Amino acid sequence: MHPALWISKTGLDAQQTNVSVISNNLANASTVGYKKSRAVFEDLLYQTINQPGGRSSQNTKMPSGLMIGAGAKVIATQKNHDQGNVQTTDNAFDLMIDGRGFFEVLMPDGTTAYTRNGQFGLNDEGTIVTPGAGYPLQPEIQVPEDAQSFTVGEDGEVSVRLPGQTDSQVIGQITITDFVNSSGLEPRGQNLYLETGASGAPQNGIASENGLGAIRQGSLETSNVNVTEELVNLIEAQRVYEMNSKVISTVDQMLTFATQQL
Amino acid sequence: MDQLLYISMTGAKQNMHSLAVRGNNLANANTTGFKADLENARSMQAFGPGMPSRVFAMTERPTQNFTDGLLKTTGRDLDVAIKGEGWISVQDKDGNEALSRNGNFTISAAGVLQTMQGQPVLGNQDAPIIIPLPVEKLEINEDGTIEIRPEGAPADALEEVNRIKLSKPFAGELTKGEDGLFRSTNGQPYQPDATVELVKGALEGSNVNPVQEMTHMISMQRQFEMQIKMMKTAEENEKATNSLLRLS
What we know:
The structure holds two protein chains of two kinds. Chain A is an alpha+beta fold. Chain A has two helices and 20 strands. In chain A, the strands form seven sheets. In chain A, strands 7, 8, 11, 15, 16, 17 and 18 form a seven-stranded antiparallel sheet that branches. In chain A, strands 12-13-14 form a three-stranded antiparallel sheet, with no helix packed on it. In chain A, a hairpin with a 5-residue loop joins β7 (about 100-105) and β8. In chain A, α1 (about 5-25) packs antiparallel against α2. The longest helix of chain A is centred in the last third of the chain and has 35 residues, at about 225-260. The mean pLDDT of chain A is about 90. In chain B, strands 6-5-12 form a three-stranded antiparallel sheet, with no helix packed on it. In chain B, β10 (about 145-150) and β11 form a beta hairpin. At the A-B interface, α1, β1, β2, β3 and β4 of A face α1, β2 and α2 of B.
């Protein structure tokens, strides 16, 4: 059948994926620590119909040929790890990384996941855990039951004040982890990321040292989704989708005309 | 059979080819750095013994539309667009140099600066650019030089590591290959050109003009219908001839 039908179909597919990516961004516009994604497009292979330089007669050659592209596709969804905005909450267990790095979280299967969502809480044993699933923050920190106050320094030092004592007591240290290529991390939902071959090995370190971000207590990092930008992208995707479906209906009309007339 | 039928058929077939070219442009209306293909038809004589009266149509893709696409600001450190004329050198899958306008880069785990399609970006001495990892901040300057701040270094410790090869070959000598990258047709090496300027944190959109493409599509559709009409006429003529010869 007509190649343009399939070419436009690839365009429709690509824009459909684009709309999914955009709608996922919009759905997570108020998810703490969410990083927006962007669909990356590529043109598909070109098919040579008439070879440039082919003979047009015994003595002459054609200066140009005919190469028809096979359409477009989405080759990647690229995460943008730009910093989100700061939202001050004044909750002692709300932590935010200002700069590079991720919090390390222990998964139930023993593997390590990474997150930028710092809305921590305590479980029944007093361990600092992620909200929702309750995965413990690494290295594990136990907050004594009778702690009067809970303080996290910029460098991740955790201290509490116990009743009857004037000085705070250090109970642990939150470390953060950075990756060479953070866009290579695999998002796995629940605001968590996993290490992949493309991300490079995790580099663990003390916050606000060696280029790692500082920890800010009482603040959260909002999603870095720019709603206006996403809506503009959505309009663009919709129009490109419409134009591609227009090509399909044009080809259809042409074929109808040919079959009915001849 | 009547030549008219065959000549109209080649016309209709070539119209379909043109429509495929336009369809591909529209499919890539959102592809970064895409250059729209142009298409035109040419008369082609059928050579051979006898009277050279048959002239067929043939669709060609003479060149691309090299006008600049619109710039989209992304704010990403590894996104660059070319201001005005110029090309970024990348390595194709055969290891040869090819040109691209797509400045959407990533760094692989091994530190190779590459396009999203995985083609290494070429720098000094036409060699792929390797970024000494780990880096805290990477800047691509307007002239293509890459500056990095190694992890843990003070804020002013930017060091220059390489320079993206930017060239400005004459657009008339460039052709798009089967992988969508551009190459020169005259085999001349691409000379680095210091006047090519980059825009940081932006990407060049596709330069497809949707209205133009759709207008062409409509005109192709009408032309196609005319060819079919001609074929229909050829059929009617044949019928008339047959009825003339019929006895009674």
